[in-house]
Protein 1
Amino acid sequence: MSRTLRWFAVIGVALVVFGPLGLILYQSFLNEPFFSQSARFSLDAYRYILSDSGFHSAFGTSLVVSFGMTLISVPLGSLLAFLLVRTDLPGKKWLEPWILVPIFLSPVVLAFGYVVAVGPVGFFSLWTKALIGRVPWSLYSLFGMVLIAGLTHVPHTFLYVSSALRSLDPSVEEAARVAGAGPWRIAVTVSLPLVLPSILFSAALIFLLGFELFGLPLVLGDPAGLLVLTTYLYKLTNLLGIPSYHLMAVVALSIVALTFPLVYLQRRMLRTAGRFAVIGGKGQAFRPLPLGALRWPAVAVVVLWLAVTVLLPLVGVALRSLVSSWGEGIKLSEVLTLDHFRELSGYPNLVRGIINTFLIGGVGGALSVIFYAVVALAAHRWQSRWVTFLDYLVMVPRALPGLVVGLAFLWVFLFFKPIAPLRTTLFSLWIAYTVVWLAYGLRLISASLFQVKPELEEAARVTGATQGLVFRDVTLPLIRFGLIGSWLLIFMMYIREYSTGVYLLGPGTEVIGSLIVSLWGTGALDLIAALSVVEVALVGIVLFIALRLGVRLDA
C-alpha cells in the first residue's frame, strides 16, 4: 500500500500541477483560442503582448507595487514581531491573534471596505471634510494602493519573523541588556539581525505576492487608470470580441516567469536559514525585555495598525451595508436600513453563491485536507529522490496567482471534452482551490506529522504491522486534532478566496468572492456590501471556533 500511495501522490500532484500549466504554454503558441478551427502555431501573441505599451505599463506598476509594499510590510511586520514576542508589551496575548486576521480576510472585501470608508465619498472622508473642509488623502492613486497593500501584508512578515524570534537564545539579548542597551537598540543590533534569513524570506514572499495582487488593484487602481499584470490579464478577456485566450496565455506565462524564480529563491533561503539560527541548548528561561516608559506608546502603534488595517475597512463595509444611500449632506441616522440583505434573497445566484461558499469551505475544504494528508503521508519518512521532486511540485502552484490557476482550469475543462460537464459544477472550483492552496495545506499537515515520533511507528512495524496499518492505527489517530485544525484553517482560506473563481464563475459555480468581483464591474455597491458582510461573518464564525479549539493561526 505504501508504494502505491507514494506513486499516487507523485503522479496525482504532477497531473494537477503540470496539466493546466502545460495547456497555458500550448495556448500561448497559437494565433487564436485553441477551440478555433483555424488555430495554428504562431508567435503573434508574443509579438503583440511584448510590444504593447499597456503591458509595459502594467509590468512597471506591478514592480513598483511589489517594491513599495515590501518596503512597508517587512520593517513594520518585523517591529510588531519583536514587540509581541520579545518584550513585555501589555495585552500581547490578546493582540497577537488579531494581527493575523487580515490573512483570512478577502483582499477584495478589504479593498471595497477602504473605498466606502476613505474613498472620495467614503464615510470617514466626508466626516473629515466636514471637520477640516477637505479630504487630506487620495485613495485612488499609486501611493494609496501601495500603502494599503503594504499594511495589509504585514501579517505575512510577522508570521515568519515571530516564529524565528521565538527560537532565539535569550542569552544574546540578556548580554546586550547587561551592557546597557535599551529594547530598541537590542532589536536593531541584536534580535532582528539574528533572524535576518527569516526577514529576507518574508521580503521575498511579499515581493512575490505583489505580482499576484488582483483585488486591490482592481478596486483601487482601476478608477485611477492603473493596471498591474493581473488586472491587465483580466482586461484582455474579450479584447478582440472573442476570448483572447492566446494573448491571456502569454501574460499568464510572463507572471509565472517573474514569480517562479522568487519561489525558488524562497526555497533556497528556507534551506539555509538554519545555518544562522541561534537557539539555546540549555533551556535558559526567557525574560521579556522591559519597554519601560515606551510600553503604552508601543501598544498604541500596534492598535493603530489594527485600526487602519482591520477596523477601518470592516466598519466601512458594515456601514455601507446598512444605509440606503450615502453622500454629502446625508445623515447616517436617516438612511439606516436592512433592505440590502433582504434584496439578496431576490437574486437566486447570490443565494446560491452564499450556499456554495459554505459548501466549498466546509465539504470542499475537508476533501482537500484528505488529499493533502494522502500526499503528506506518502512523503512521510520516505527516503527517496522522489520526495525532493514532490517537494518541488508542491511549490509550483505557489508561483501561480489564483486568477491564472482558475483560467488554466477553465481551459482544461474546455479542452478535454469528457470532463467538460464538470465545468458547471462545484468540482471545477474545488480542484482549482485545492491546487492554489496545495503548498499551504501540505505545510499544515506536515507540521502535525512532524510531532509524531518515529519510535511510535517503529514499534508498530516491529509487531508486524504493514505501512498501511501503521498509518491507520498510529499516525492518523495521533494527528487527528491537527487535521481538524488544518480543515478549519483551509475552510477560512477557501471562504476568502476570490480570484480563482473569476473565470470559473457560472450558473452552479457562484461563490461570494467571485460574485463580488463580477458585481464590482456593474457598480452594484449595495449588493457588494451585503455579500461582503456575509463573507466576513462566515470567516469570523470559523475563526472564533478555531481559536476556541486552540488552533494555532500561525501553523
Protein 2
Amino acid sequence: MKYAGIIVDNNTSATDALYTYRTELEDIAVGQKVIVPFTMHDRRAEGYVATLSDEAPEGLSRIKDIIEIVPGVQLSEEAVKTAMWMHDRFLCRYIEAVKCFLPVSEAKRRTKDPFADLECEPTEPKKLTKAQAAALSEINSAVEAKKNTVFLLHGVTGSGKTEVYLQAMQKVIDMGRCGIVLVPEISLTPQLVSRFASRFGLDRIAVLHSKLTPAQRGEQYKRIESGGVKLAIGARSAIFAPFTDIGLIVMDEEHETSYKSDKSPKYDTLELAEKRAMYHGASIVLGSATPSVKDYYRSEKGLFRRLELAERYNSNPLPRAYIVDMTKEVKAGNRSLFSKKLAEGIRKTLDDNKQVILFLNRRGYASYVSCRECGHTMRCPECGITLTYHREEDALVCHYCGRKQPMPKVCPDCGSRIIGRFGAGTEQVEEKVHELFPDASAGRLDLDTAKRKGGMESVLKQFEKGKTDILIGTQLVAKGLDYANVGLVGIISADVTLNIPDFRSAERTFQLVTQAAGRSGRGEEPGSVVIQTYAPQDPAIVFAARHDYRSFYEREIELRKAAAYPPFADIYQLVISDEDEQLAFESAKRCAVWLRKKLPEGVHVLGPAPGVLVKASGQFRYQILIKSPAGSRKSTSSAIMQLRDIYAKQKGVAKLFTTDIDPYSFI
C-alpha cells in the first residue's frame, strides 16, 4: 500500500493543499495524472501525484483510494519539485504551478510549425573580438565543468552579445546537452529564431510562446520529449520546456519587465531559471546593455559573474545623443510633438536615404501632472513617487500610501499656471509624421497593430526591406531590433516612463532611452538620437545620453538603499477587489490591520490605497504594499500565506484576494 499526496485540479484557495489518497497500484509514480474521489460527494476529479510514501500521515481517520491513473501524462520529478517550490516562493496555488509544465492540451493532429517557412541561410561562426572571446571562454569553461554559474553579460548595444550566445550554445549541443534561449517579447522571436536556425538548423529548434495554438504548443512539446530537439527559443513560458538535460539558459535583454509574469502564477523567470539550472548543473547567461539594478548589484556582490563588452562589434562609436529641453520649445512658441532639432534631423536622415525610428512609450496608466514652464512634476511628499491624476475625484493620488491632494491651480515650484496632464500617443505621432513628411512612408508598431494577426511581423518586415522610411512605436521598437540602415532615433518624450508611479521609474527611463538609442548607427555609419524631455537635467536622462551605465547605477543604488527598495527589500503587493467598493476597502483595511499585528518589527505595511486602476472589469481594487527587508522574506511570505488561508474561509469579505512579490506593475 502506498500513500500519495495529490494536487487536485480545483483552482481555488480553499482547496490549495495536498490531499492524501492511498493506492495498491504498483506502477504509481510522482508526476502522474490520476482520477480521485473528491469532496464529500466523491465526485471524480483529476489530480497530480506530488509525493509518495509507504506510511500514512498521522491523524487521518479516513483515506480514500485513487480510482485510476490517466495514461499518457507524466510530469518529471524536477517539474513536480519546482511546482512545489513555486507555491511557496511566489505564493501561487499548487495547481497553477503544475499547469505551467503542461502543454495547454494534447495535440490531436499534426499542425504546421509556425516557423516552418522561416527564411534562413546557413551561417558560420563569426570571428570574435577580444572581449567576446574572453566572455565565451569563461562561459564554455563553466558549461564543460557543469558548473551552476550565473553570468551577467553586460554589453553595449551592438557589441555582439548574440554571437556569444550562439557559440556558447554550440558548446552545449556538442556535449549532447540542451539549451533554452529566452527573449522578452514575441516580436523578437522571429529574428532570434532566424539567427539560431541559420546556425543550427530549424529542425533542431522548438519555438514556445503564448501565441501558439494549443495544438501547436503540444506539438512543440512532443518534439522536445522525443529527443530530436536540442534548443528551445521563446518568451518567458519557454523556461518550462520539458528538457531532461539542460546545459545552458540564456536570457536576452534580461532587464525587461516582461520576464515577470503578470498573471497567476506571478513568477519571476530568472528565479525559475536559477532553480532549473541548479537541478541540471547548468549555467545561465543574462545579456543586456542596461542590466537591472538588482542584477548588477548581485554581480557587484559576487553572486553573479560579470562579463563586459564595452565596444560595438564593428568598432563604430555609439550614437551621438542630443537632449532637447521641451520647456524651451514651448517658450519659443513650438507646441508641436516634434522639436526643431528632431524635425530637422528626420528631414536630413530621409534625404540621406536612411531610416528613422520614433519612440514614444505611451501607456494608459502613466498619465502625470507637470508644469509646462519649469518641468516640475507633482510627487507624493511621503513616498517620493509620482502622483497619478484621478478624473472622478479631480485629485492627485499616491498609489503607494494612499495620500490624496487636490489638483494644483499653480505650480508649487515656479508659480506658473501652465499645468496639465501629459498625454500623446503613437497615433498622434503618426498623424504628425504624415503632415510634416508627406513624401515618407510610415509604419506604426504598438499594441493596436500587434493585436492584429500578423500585424507585428508585417510592420517589421516592411521596415527591414526598406519599404518603410519611418517606424513609429512604443517599447516594442526599443527592444533588440537590429537594422543597419537606421540613422536616427527620436524619443518623443523621455518623461513618460520617468513619471510612472513606480520606484523603478528612473531605471526604466534609463533603460528605454539607452535601448531605443541603441537601434541607431548599427551599420557602417554612425547614428544619432534626439531625446525630447521636460526634465533635461534628470540624471537618468543625462546618463542615458552619455551611455554611462555605471554612473547611473551608483546613484540609483544609493537611493534604493536609503528608501529600502529592492535589492535591499522585497515588495509584496496584495490586491483586494469586489464589485462593492466599500466592501473592498473594508476587507483590505482588515487585512492591513492583521498584517501589522502579525509581521515582525522592521517590516512596513503601507495602505490600503486605491489601485492605479481603481476599477477594472467591474471590480473596485484596493492594494496593500509590504516592504520586507532582506532577511525577513520567509516570515513575511509565511504570514501572507496564513492570511490567505484565513481569508479563503471568511464570509462577508471582498471576492478577490491576489498577491504578487516584487511586481513590475502597480496597476
Protein 3
Amino acid sequence: MAILLWVAVILGLIVGVWPRAPVPRPALTAGACLAGLAGLTALSMTWASDDGRAFTEIVRVLTYLGLFVAVVLASGSGRPRPWLLGLAFGLTMVAALALGSRLEPSILPTSEVAETIREPEALASFPLGYWNAVAACAAMAIVLLGWLAASARSRWTRSIAAGLIPIPALDIFLTSSRGGLAALAAGVVVMVAIGPRRLTVAGGLGLGMLGAAVLVTRAATSPSFLAGADTAAARQEGHILLALTVLTVAVVAVLRLLSDSRLQGARLAARPSRGARRAAVAVAAVAAILAIIAASPAEWLSGFAAPSQAPSGGAELATSRLASSTGNGRFQYWEAGLSAFASRPLTGIGAGGYEAWWGEHGSLPATVRDAHSLFVETLAELGPLGLLLILAFLAIVAVTAIRTHRGGTDRAALGAALAVVAVGGVAAAQDWMWEIPAVFGPVIVGAALLTGPAFNPRAAGGRSRFGVGVATLLVGWVAILGGIAGILTELKLNASRDAVDRGDLAGAAQDAREAGALQPWAAAPYLQVAQIQQLRGDLPGAEQAMAEAIARAPDDWRVWFVAASLDAGTGDVQGALDATKRANRLRPTVPYAGDAGRSGR
C-alpha cells in the first residue's frame, strides 16, 4: 500500500494529473500531524527495544499519510460524493462477504483467526480475519447506506441503499461486537446531528433497522447456526436465513420506494424555540444520568475489569457476549499500556514495544501484540507527544467539519464523512483497528475529504505550495524505499525458510544475510542466520549471529529462547540456564515452551 500510494502521489505531482485545487490549510495541518507522527516513530528507533518492529510502525504511518495525501490531491474541489459512494460500495461488499461466509460456509471461506486465538468459530470474521474489524466496517456501511437512503439523487438508489442496511446490521449481531455497536451509535449520532433532513435520514435508517430486527430475531432462534456447527441442522438454518435475508432486503427496498415522496418531503413542523431546545437538552441530560444510574456503573466497571471468561458458545454466544460487561482483557491491556507509559513518561517505550512490555509485565496468560486502543498504545510507545499528534489530527478534522457545516456546503455528505471518522475513531479507541487498514483506511479517506478541497473548494491554501510539494516528494521517496525494504526483506526471509525445507542450508543462510543487509536494524534476519548456522554445525557463526539478534531485540523472549537452544547445543549449560531464565522473565505469564494459554492480538 505504501509503495502504490506514494508512487501515485509522486507521478501525479510530476505529470500534473491531479486537480489544480488549492490545498486548504486544515489539510496541510492534519497532514503535518501524520508526518510528525511518522518522524517521531522513526526517532523512537533510538530507544525502542526492537528496531525491526519500530520500522514496521514507521511504514504503517507513512502508508496512512500517503493515503491522506493522495485523497487530498485527487478529490478536487467540491466533489466528495464519488468518494463516499466508493466507500459505501466497498464497505457494503465487505459486509456481504462476511455474512455470506456465515450463511453459506461451503461457498465462501471462513476465517482461521478464530482457531488461532481460540475463540468460538461462530463469530463472523471473514474476509478481514477479525470479527470486531468486520463489525466496525459494517457500522461504517450502515451510516453510509443511511446517508444514501436519504440523499442519493435517484429514488431507486435511495431505496436500494435502505434495503441493504439489514446486511451489515446482521453482521454486527453475528460478530457479537459491543465495540461495533458503540461505534455505530457514535456514527449515527454524528450523522444525524451534522446532516440536514433528520426525519428523512431517520426514516431510511428506521426501515433498514426494522428489517435487521427481523433477521436478528430469526438468527437468535437458530441455535445450530449460531454455534457454527457443521451439521445438517446448521446448514438448513443457514439456508433459511439466507432466503429470509434476500426477502427482507427486497421488502425494505420496496417499502422505501413506496414511501419515497413522503420521506423526502418530511420536515419538522416548525423550528423549536431556543427555550424549547434548552429544555430538550436538559431532559436528555437527566435521562442520560438516570440511565447511567440504572445501569449500575460500579458493577459494570467491576465486570469490565475482571479477567476474561471463556464464552459459553452455542446459541448463547451472540446474545451473551453482547449483554456481557466483561472487557475481555482490555482493562488489563490498557493497564499494562499505562504502566509502560509511567516507566518512560517523556518518550514512551518506543514504537512496536508494547508486545515485549506485555510479555514481561502482563497480568493475563495471553500473547498480546497490541494494547487494543490506539490512544493507550500511542501513549505507551511514543509518550505524550505521540498521543498529542493523534488527537490533534482528529481534532483538526472535527473542527474543520463543524466550521464547514456552518458554511452551507453539502451538509448531508459532510455528516456522512464525519460519521465514518467517528465510527473508526471509536473502534480504534477500544481495539487494534489502527493496524487494520480496511478499518482505519476509510477514516483517513474521510479525514482527507473533510479537511481537503472536496468540502472546502474556496478555502485558502498554504503560503508555499512549492515547499509543500518538495516536502511531499521527499516523504514519498522515503516511504517508497521503506516499503520496498520491507517487501524484499520478507521475500528473502521466506526464501530462506523454503531453502531450509529443501535442505539447502548454504542458500538459506545467504538469503537470510541479504535480508539483514536490507534491514540491518532488524533482529529477524540475524535470528534466522543463527538457527541456520546451528543446523550447519557452524556454532561460532551461530553465536555471532545470535549476539547480533540479541543486540537488536533484547526484550524479545523468542530471541532468548533460541539462544537457550544454541547454548544447550554447544554444551554451555550455564548459558542455556541463564537464557531460559531471561526468556521466562520476559514472558512470565505464559511459559515460552508450548505457548500455553489463550493467544490474542
